[in-house]
Amino acid sequence: xxxxxxxxxxxxxxxxxxxxxRPASEFKSRSDYLDHELTIxxxxxxxxxxxxxxxxFEWEDLVPALAGTIxxxxxxxxxxxxxxxxxxxxxxxxxxNVRVEMWVxxxxxxxxxxxxxxxxxxxxxxxxxxxxxxxxxxxxGGHPLALAILIFIFGMALSLVKGGxxxxxxTSEGVAGGLLVYLGIMGAQGQINNLLDWSTExxxxxxxxxVLFLNVVLYAFLAKVGKRWLAIPACSALAVVVxxxxxxxxxFSTEPGLPNLNPAYWxxxxxxxxxxxMPTVSHFIASLPFAILAVAxxxxxxxxxxIFQELNYPKGSDKVLMDVDxxxxxxxxxxxxxTAFGGGNVTSxxxxxxxxxxxxxxxxxxxGILLGILCIIVATVGYPMDIAVWAPVMSVAxxxxxxxxLLEAGMQMVKSAxxxxxxxICIFASMVVNPVFGWALTMLLDNNGLIGDKERPKSLSFxxxxxxxGLAFVVCxxxxxxxxxxxxxxxxx
Length: 493
Fold this sequence. Notes:
- This protein is mainly α.
- The protein has helices at about 5, 15-20, 30-40, 60-85, 90-115, 135-140, 145-160, 165-170, 175-200, 205-225, 230-245, 265, 280-295, 300-310, 325-340, 350-360, 365-380, 385-390, 390-415, 415-430, 435-445, 460-485.
- It has 2 domains: about 5-40, no CATH class; about 60-175 and about 250-485, no CATH class.
- The protein has 22 helices and no strands.
- The longest helix has 29 residues, at about 175-200.
- It starts with a helix and ends in a 10-residue tail after the last helix.
- Residues about 1-10 have low confidence and may be disordered.
């Protein structure tokens, strides 16, 4: 076997992916083959990438595709249910709108953008931290289309000046580690509570405990044998089997159907679709702070997803790492296009896809295409949507596929006393307000040497120490004050 196969980082920069590709049979292990694939790929930025010439489909790609499908069905359903409750819309609206979002994200962004045109732009999914804000957006007089237009403008502006990647590069390992630990702990606790509450409401509390106990054992086994990337399908399947075997009720209710992609139906009248009509100036004013907050939250969100690639990919695979600014541009366009067709999702980098993809050592394009196909199938057939949002599947999939890996990655990043101090303060500040506040404040303190590594500020410019972190903190703080996200302080608007 040649050195170029044994050492993934030693590849010929002049040779093409096709020339450097070797069959899996030439490698000692599957992991070595996947590592080699990551080091020889040369994605074409905003140009056509083709299967075989620029990337390949592997069976490992099915895992993040399945995980992303489950995750996005859950998240889209949560967003549309919140909007339906706030605007007095029925369950039919929720199903129809989820179908719109799944078709648009699948065809235009999973398959076309991230699959074929720019495999370094992560898929544009859902902005989880914004879900609790949906009711507040409606009560404040916001309008989904106005919000989407503002997010598109702010997101594209930040992408064009490469602000997203600048903020990510200014976030130290201590800050990033603390942010991931906090998100992992809080998210895991939330999903555990959701599952236990669900089973308690059925007067079958033992089901939730049994599902969680058996999945802890299975997850530990998968980690021991190096197959943790199989956690989502394996643990979700176990949750379904155990819950049904113990008598948990379940029935299919979502029938097959196609989405209504006519913008006039959704926005052209107060009698159809959203029943809001087109946005007015007052709608834009009311939506402004929420749009600023959504875009301000993108950088720490993107940071968490890219870290998973860096932790799991081999040396020499920089060319396939997620590009933060391209992902930001994709999310901005997806926000406008998806909402124009009638959707209500607030978008961000697709974490339920990226995290298991990184753990499985797979790049973005092939799994993204498969994810798009699965989303179309699920949205059209309808019945799989019922399975994805069933409490045992939803909670277990998010628990083992997103929040436990976040926690583990955060702990891996805290490697010194200085970084543990920074991580601890980031967690503390996040608990006081929220993780975006914790990230922005700790980044500002850390880059100025007030916490963490005292030598770090010496390698940074004045803009990197004061201007950019200070501006990020002020923007986040003002946006939060405006919408009332800080407890004890009434909303300014």
